Amino acid sequence: WAFVLFLIWSNSFIAIGLLLGSEEQAARFDPLSLTVARFVPLLLIVVPIILIVWPREARRVVREHWRRLLVCGFLAVPGYSLALYAGQAGGVPPPIASIETSLAPLFLMILSAAFLGERLSRQKLAGFAVAVVGLVLIARAKDDGGSVGYAGYVVLTALAPLAWAIYSVLTKPVTKTCHPVLWTFLALVVGTLPLVPLVPFSGGPEMLALDGLGWGALLYLALLCTVFGNAAWNWLVKHMPASSVGFTIFLNPPLTTTSKALLATFFPAIFVFQILPLEWLGGAIVLLGLALALWPRPPKLPTATPPVGD
């Protein structure tokens, strides 16, 4: 199930690139209109589920945690999406965007140590430092003699996993008394409601002009990646050991890269596969840092007690 989930999520970066015009076709959306088009229609699905399955609990959660819910909604919907979409629209390839979003556990590690009192070992700090080096190499991959354009988009893309990490830190205390799927759906609703008035001006016109391929990519993002993906992730977190869940993040970059290469091979008129050597190197170093930070340390063996003489 982890493989199926990340196979779906890994291809989301390719669908985003297709809709934003970073492939061989014209852009169908800009970052704001894609955010609106992806999330606003989901209110028709998510709101009835909340009202039918958790009507009383939803009212209690909103009443007790409305401030936290406002922040989480902003981070989960416009915060994450606009950063990722703007980065990809600026030229960050889907495989590199996938690698950057894999930084979420590292950001979560730092934030959990700062605000949740979790222990931060030297191994984890070293892993974070290595990942930052890889990110710097990626940012320099398209250095054209002083321009910070591509580097800025790389940094902007990295804000997406940072937003998700902050969202996760704020969410963790609430899930002790609230169903995690309910909290996810409430955050989705709260983060999406401010986008509803924008539909006639941004998102709505673009959806009316969509072709079949565009609709397929948009529905893939909305239904499979968002609704099914979030529910499947919560199920995995509940049934898998924490260490195993952490390592599933490694599935994302190779699956995105493989899917993109296959699509570009079989559909060259639609998809393009191009990753610069420095991007390959930087991506590998980011994954190395992630592995160093998440690799479980072997438990210390108990010290043997010497036998006591007669």
The portion of residues assigned to helices is: over 70%
Beta fraction = under 5%
Indicate the mean pLDDT. Answer: 84
One letter per element, helices H and strands E, the order comes to HHHHHHHHHHHHHHH
Major sheet characteristics:
none
Q: Note the total helix count.
A: 15
Structural class: mainly alpha
Taking all Cα atoms into account, the compactness measure Rg is: 21 Å
Distance, first to last CA: 59 Å
Give the tally of β-strands.
Answer: 0
Overall spatial form:
globular
Topology (SSEs and partners):
Elements: H1 2-10, H2 12-20, H3 31-39, H4 43-53, H5 55-89, H6 94-101, H7 104-115, H8 122-139, H9 149-171, H10 180-192, H11 204-208, H12 212-239, H13 242-247, H14 252-266, H15 277-294
Helix pairs in contact: 1-12, 1-14, 2-6, 2-12, 3-5, 3-12, 4-10, 5-9, 5-10, 6-14, 7-8, 7-9, 8-9, 8-15
List keywords for this structure.
15 helices, disordered C terminus, 310 residues, mainly alpha
Question: What do these coordinates show?
Answer:
- The structure is a single chain.
- The chain is built from 15 helices and no strands.
- The protein has 310 residues and is mostly helical.
- It has helices at residues 2-10, 12-20, 31-39, 43-53, 55-89, 94-101, 104-115, 122-139, 149-171, 180-192, 204-208, 212-239, 242-247, 252-266, 277-294.
- The model is unreliable at 304-310 (pLDDT under 50).
- Helix 2 (12-20) packs antiparallel against helix 12 (212-239) and helix 8 (122-139) packs antiparallel against helix 15 (277-294).
- It is globular, with a radius of gyration of 21 Å.
